[in-house]
Amino acid sequence: MSGGRTVVFACMDADTLGGIQRVTHTVAQGLAERGHEVHVIGLHRAERPFRYVERPRYAHHVIHRRPVGALSRLAGRREHRALGRLLREVGPGFAVLTSPGVVTRVRSLLPERLLPIGQYHGSYEHARGCWHLRSVRRHYGTLEKAVFLSDDDAWRFSEQALLPNTWSIPNPLPSWPERTADLEAHRVLGVGRLEGVKRFDRLISAFARAHRDTGHDWELHLIGEGAERDRLREHAAACGVAGRVVFRGTVPASEMGREYSAGAVLGLSSEHEGLPLALAEAASHGVPSVAFDVSSGVRSLVAHGRAGLLVPPADVTALAGALGGLMASVPERRRLGAAARAHAEAFRADRVLDRWEELFEQVTR
Q1: Are strands 187-191 and 309-311 parallel, antiparallel or unpaired?
Q2: Which intervals hold domain Glycosyltransferase subfamily 4-like N-terminal (predicted)?
């Protein structure tokens, strides 16, 4: 793309440990390094801010000092004034609104020189089960583009939400490792916030069954923090694997490569996902994944039988069987891991950034 443009990313909260935030900071840094003027705006302060980029080359702004929650009328007026002032100060370009809630709060405040682009980080399957589909149908068709995580999701939203402006851009990998895991370690990884939607209780149950069948000294390492930690500890004890489930807490982004390199299998047991970066990051290190088939994004990351294994959503028995099969076979882990790494090439940051710049070109053509 010739010449840098202004790109503003607006998030409900830009600094919590989460998928939307991680993608936003990765793309912001990449575009800034390509010569664009980039701003990341968080409407609210994060309760526990997480640092995604050590040396950001983009500007970062937080509108409210309070975490996400209901706004008083006075706070709403202050938001309008602060956002309006900030948006008037930036040059012409694009405003990427990263969720339905952000679209409804920010769209009307954008000056004409900032062209609105709506992102949706979830899957069509999740959207149709909650208010998101109604909001996307109502608001995203009026934007310059509506961006989804996979070609299949973009098509389904265009058909079911009657959107004439869909586009697909996957989440980017923050980096590409030169070395891959040897897959010899007896370690299953679970990566994500310890919250209900991630259903790590199901992963623990599946691991317990698989561990009984393999009879080896395997461990399940859960990397992340959240409100479910104590309950998950109790569940591990009830499953008889309290000494085999290791709660690692939050690991800095800069050290996650070491964690993937020390793993042999990644397990994903969420109720719903968009395009979970943990699957792509594991794959980039040559680590195969076993996952519930909950979205087009998951399917785009895990090519079943070729670069990982998918099982029916919420089927703990099937998850245990798939995990156990990989835990019992180093050659099968290596076969799937090598294919997973090759498959993950499509999610390298430079390719995803090219896709963003293609989008900008099309919008302004």
Answers
A1: unpaired
A2: 18-133
- Asked whether residue 274 is assigned to any structural domain, the reply reads yes
d(CA 84, CA 194): 36
> Is 146 in contact with 135 (CB distance < 8 Å)?
no
| DSSP-based three-state secondary structure for 291 | strand
Dump pLDDT digits (tens) for 208-232.
Answer: 999 998 878 999 999 999 999 999 9
- Tell me what pLDDT residue 3 has: 62
Name the nearest CA neighbour of 10 among 113, 67, 75, 86.
86
* pLDDT tens, residue by residue, 122-134: 999 899 989 999 9
Instruction: Work out whether strand 59-62 and strand 145-148 pair parallel, antiparallel, or are unpaired.
Output: unpaired
Which CATH number goes with the domain that contains 109? Answer: 3.40.50.2000
Taking phi over 0 as left and psi of -120 to 50 as alpha, with beta for the rest, 314 belongs to: left
- Please determine, for residue 1, whether its predicted confidence score (pLDDT) is greater than 60: no
- Could you tell me if residue 252 is inside a domain? yes
- Give a yes or no: residue 178 inside a domain: no
Whether residues 153 and 201 fall in one domain: no
Say whether pLDDT at 108 is over 70.
yes
The whole-chain average pLDDT of the chain stands at 94
Q: What's the rounded Cα separation, in Å, for the pair 63 and 69?
A: 13
* DSSP run (H or E) holding 246: strand 245-249
- Is the domain of 289 the same as that of 244? yes
User: How far is CA 261 from each of CA 15, 123, 252, rounded to the nearest angstrom?
Assistant: 26, 29, 15
CB 340 within 8 A of CB 278: no
Q: What is the pTM of this model?
A: 0.85
Query: In this structure, are residues 221 and 190 in contact, taking their beta carbons and an 8 Å threshold?
Result: yes
Q: Are residues 27 and 125 in the same domain?
A: yes
Sheet (strand 219-223) strand order: 245-249, 219-223, 187-191, 265-268, 289-292, 309-311
Is residue 23 in some structural domain?
yes
CB 139 within 8 A of CB 110: no
Domain count, the chain: 2
Same-domain pairing of 314 and 328:
yes
